[in-house]
Amino acid sequence: MKICVCIKQVPDTAEVKLDPKTNTLIRDGVPSIINHDDRSAIETAIQLKEQYGAHVSVVCMGPPQADIALREALAMGCDEAYLLSAREFGGSDTYATATIIATALRKIGFDLVITGRQAIDGDTAQVGPQIAEQLHLPQVTYAEELKYEGGDTLIVRRQFEDQSHMIKIKMPCLITALTELNEPRYMSVKGITSAYQQEVNVWGFDALKDDLNPAWIGLKGSPTNVFQSFGKQLRQAGKVMTGLSDEQAVDAIMAKLIERHII
Amino acid sequence: MAKDIFVVVEQRVDENGVCVVQKVGIELIGEACKLAKDSGDNVVAVLLGHNFTDQAQMLIQYGASKVLVVDSEYLVPFMTEPYVKAVTQIVRDYEPSIVLFGASSIGRDIAPRVAGRVHTGLTADCTRLDIDVAKYQDFLRRTTSLQPEKIDALSSPEMAARLDPKLLKMTRPAFGGNIMATIVCPAYAPQMATVRPGVMEMPEKNPNAKGIVEEVKVDFVPEDRNVEILSTEHPKEKIVDITDAKVLVSGGRGVGGPEGFDLLRPLAKELGGEVSSSRIGVDNGWIEKSRQVGQTGKTVHPNLYLACGISGAIQHQAGMESSECIIAINKDDKCPMMEMADLGIQADLFKIVPKLTAAVKAYNEKKNQL
Amino acid sequence: MDFKLDKCHELQRQLFRSFAENEIKPIAKDMDENEAYDLDLLAKLQKYGFFGIPFPRELGGGGSDNLGYALAMEECSRIDASTGITMSVHTSLCCQAIYHNGTPEQKEKYLRPLIDGTKMGCFGLTEPGAGSDVAGAQTVATQNEDGSWTINGSKIFTTNSGFADTCTLFAITDRNVKASKGMTCFIVDLKEMPGITISDNIERMGIRAASNCIVTYDNVRVPADRVLGKVGGGFKIAMQSLDSGRIGIAAQAVGIAQGALDESIKYAKARKQFGRPIVAFQNSQFKLAECQTLIEAARLLVWKAAIAEDKGEPFSALAAQAKLFASDVAVQVTRYAVQLMGGYGYCREYPVERMYRDAKITEIYEGTSEVMKMVIAGSMKL
Question: Strand pairing of B247-251 and B274-277?
Answer without folding.
Answer: parallel
